[in-house]
């Protein structure tokens, strides 16, 4: 699973290499708008006649990609590092399948580590109760559950969560590395 994701990550990093140099931040609106200059991107890469890339850039998924990844100050991730710093490595590996496979495996391992930062915690074993623990007098029996009170608490929580903003991860924000300009490719 992670290796397939790494292959696609690498593919999209190659496909969109240098996209940041074609982003324009328009500040005339109350909320700044990020615009992607498609013609400049395709022209600088010499791909004006490429139907596939033109259709990708015109799609809704790419518009979402630009709005999400366009801001110059946000939480960075593995894709940003690939686009900004791995240009030469990806170029050098183009004709060498063993090097490509090695890089894909490295990326897959990084993806795994990003999703499982503390793998030892996820596999903790719950200790078995000691022999005769159920006969101990000092342990109080579990109280009966009041079904009406449980329903009230659930309803209260649902009401609160509907009015609350969606939860977001507390990622550390930084200036997104621009990487090399498009003209290099």
Labels describing this entry:
8% strand, Myotubularin-related protein 13, 185 residues, 51% helix, guanyl-nucleotide exchange factor activity, mainly alpha, Tripartite_DENN, 9 helices, DENN_Domain_GEFs, two-stranded antiparallel ribbon, two-stranded antiparallel sheet, 4 strands, flat
**Which structural category do the helix and sheet elements fall into?**
mainly alpha
Task: Give the termini distance in whole angstroms.
Answer: 30 Å
* Sheet having the most strands: 2 strands, antiparallel
Radius of gyration: 25 Å
Beta-strand residue fraction:
5-15%
Number of strands: 4
Counted by DSSP, the helix tally is: 9
Summarize the structure.
The chain is mainly alpha-helical and 185 residues long. The protein contains nine helices and four strands. It has a domain of 117 residues.
Describe the 3D structure.
With 185 residues, the protein is mainly α. The protein has helices at 2-15, 38-45, 51-58, 60-69, 78-85, 87-92, 97-115, 119-122, 147-163; strands at 23-26, 33-36, 73-75, 173-175. It has a domain at 1-117. It contains 9 helices and 4 strands. The strands form 2 sheets. Strands 1-2 form a two-stranded antiparallel ribbon. A two-stranded antiparallel ribbon has the order 3-4. β1 and β2 (33-36) form a beta hairpin. The protein is flat, with a radius of gyration of 25 Å. The mean pLDDT is 81.
